[in-house]
Amino acid sequence: MLHPADTSHDSYPSRIEPTSRLIERREPVVYGHNPGPLSDAGLQSFSRDGFLQMRGILDPSEIEAVHNELSEMVARPEVRQDERTIIEPASNEVRSMFQVHETSRIISRLAADKRIVDVARQILGSYVYIHQSRVNFKPAFEGKDFSWHSDFETWHTEDGMPAMRAVSFSISLTENYTYNGPLLLIPGSHRIYVTCVGETPEGNYRSSLQFQKLGVPEREHLRTLYKRAGGRIEVCTGEPGEVTVFDCNTMHASPSNISPVPRTNIFLVFNSVENTPVEPFAAPKRRPDYLASRDYNPVG
Amino acid sequence: MLHPADTSHDSYPSRIEPTSRLIERREPVVYGHNPGPLSDAGLQSFSRDGFLQMRGILDPSEIEAVHNELSEMVARPEVRQDERTIIEPASNEVRSMFQVHETSRIISRLAADKRIVDVARQILGSYVYIHQSRVNFKPAFEGKDFSWHSDFETWHTEDGMPAMRAVSFSISLTENYTYNGPLLLIPGSHRIYVTCVGETPEGNYRSSLQFQKLGVPEREHLRTLYKRAGGRIEVCTGEPGEVTVFDCNTMHASPSNISPVPRTNIFLVFNSVENTPVEPFAAPKRRPDYLASRDYNPVG
Fold this sequence. Notes:
The structure is a homodimer. Chain A is α+β, with helices and mostly antiparallel strands. The first copy, chain A, has one domain: Sandwich (Jelly Rolls), CATH 2.60.120.620. The first copy, chain A, is 25% helix and 21% strand. Chain A has 9 helices and 13 strands. In chain A, the strands form 3 sheets. In chain A, strands 2-11-7-13-5-4-3 form a 7-stranded antiparallel sheet. In chain A, strand 3 and strand 4 form a beta hairpin. Chain A is globular, with a radius of gyration of 18 Å. Chain A binds chain B through residues 140-141, 145, 147-148, 177-179, 184, 219, 222-223, 226, 231, 233, 235, 253, 255-261, and chain B through 140-141, 145, 147-148, 177-179, 184, 219, 222-223, 226, 231, 233, 235, 253, 255-261.
């Protein structure tokens, strides 16, 4: 199923060249005009901004059911010891759990739910499969920040994802306030690819999930993207059950959470079945399956 | 000029007792009905919330003049070496400069400006002097957070400020967005004093200005204050030139700044001339003059 790596025709060379640069995106953002839950206006705004917020996707009883299952999961010693669980070194608390569409019954149903999958299909113009899934816990008072990055940069260099034809869904399980470490997005940044410098060492993912050192864009480029956006950053606030859909190349970050309110969200990445990974473009070998799935069966 | 310390009648014992507790504030928030720039509604909202935002206090030319003088100051080697300047260890950048009402010509004028001082007098019902002044720089991408604290807790325990009769003015020199590390305030928290545990070592201020370890309220108490506020945190966003006035005991914090936009503000603390410090209530000796002024001459 793996295509042969063709790094001589790498359209998005990152972690390869001695200096970083900006590359214009080659692919469309919305693949064709497909029927689906999003209106024309919704698709246009996604295409323009690189993200979209959908209100009230999950109802309170569904959110409660997810919370209950997750609480039960993080309490299990075998889950804490699982390599797919990331523990915060300082506090010893669970920060992320990966591959939750396989380990959680409710999230596996959600990852195949028409309210979600049909949006991914509509944007990507094809059947889709799950490239990655996870739950992020950002605890009150001590939730750490994630610095600016494009997910596609990592998925391309480390996972061999050839083109920009994937979308992420961030499903809020708690209130997102401006002050509890919300998702920040730079509008329009999905149209520019920022190459990064530095060679990927083997097993980079082990440390990068706690603190990202590679795939970190230079500040000068972030300032450029911010200026191009008219000095605007989208702060994704909202109720539990809201969903933020964003393009795989949208530059995003999230600040630390010093507030008394935790923040938890489910993160589902859908990739087009026509965009399945090849060998990594700039890493010694592919990351494990729980970070970059090799199960390309369409969902939904 | 120093009153004798009378710790046997310490109304706000902190860093003394083995466990922390909440104490109801004894003093008023607004001292009488005094003429001044604030309306009755403004005074009432300050009294209720413990803070107030004043729009458009400085005009753009004044802000530019302050920026120019500050740029010139931080570039001077003797300023960087001055003990009143706090350097961020990781980046080697200036994070704060203290006693700026004496070292900056423009800030010294501002600290005596009727637009500011008359508000302090109106709230505190007396002549006022400057207990502390500083400029805070929160650089883009790496501005550090300040965790939750009441300034009065430190001013009482370490500086010997007897009662809650001081107000702080945070004067914005840059845009305050929700995402560049703005001031966060818990409405109504000024009415409750949260005692802290831990004994103050001598010279505590040297490390506490970079990372506060003492005078840090317990999380359980912060949750209580947040709940009492109806689950609301005030995020002080606004234009350059806006001023946030807040009570000395209002619980506040500010998150890290991972955005591409720096945040700079001037911080002026006015204390009532009827509330001049005695010996510290819970520290071996008083902090230096540049942190807790001994010049009690009224300003304005």
